[in-house]
Amino acid sequence: MDIDWAWIGDHRDTLTEHALIHLRLALLPVVFGLLISLPLGVLCRRFGWLYPPTLTIANVLYAIPSLALFMIFIQYTGLTASTVMIPLTLYSLSVLVPNVVDGLASVSEPVRQAATAMGFGPLRRLLRVELPIAVPIVIAGTRVAAVSSISLVAVGQLIGQGGLGYDIIRGYQLQFQTQIVAATVLIVLLALVTDALLVTLQRVLTPWARARGRAA
Fold it and tell me: Of 15, 110, 129, 139, which is the most exposed, with the fewest CB atoms less than 10 Å away?
């Protein structure tokens, strides 16, 4: 397979623009998913009966093919970015909600009791003790959700909102392999860079883990 490097150089600005659009369409749903999953996960942890139906609904939504969800939402939001981002937000819940619940469950009871003994109320204990300890598990789920979202955004080009998906479909229409390969490589790079940034964020948010690693 021959790659037309001159075409890539000539279309560098266009590819960059499409990559930025792709990143926005992919990562905003993950942010929205976190904003929904954090309080929902806390509620599921506090009220155990709420977790099974919540997880079932999230998994059922995840089982619906992305194109089918796009077609459902297109009736309400039209050919807009929202038609792509709303389904991707719903997909992220099936990963993020369980990770938030598991992260909170990883906080041992003696730690909770110690925080309570120090005068921490429920909200302060949640924000200062439980959520920080849950960070590694929550970020692990966020990494999966982010990479999955970056991959799925390309499908959105079938309704005109796909970022680098445009180049994949356009390259297929023109039988121009260079455009397909360039877009695919950029999607993979976006996923790798995003994953690396999330790992870095985890290290920043858990300085005690770094200190423990240095001590070891």
Answer: 110
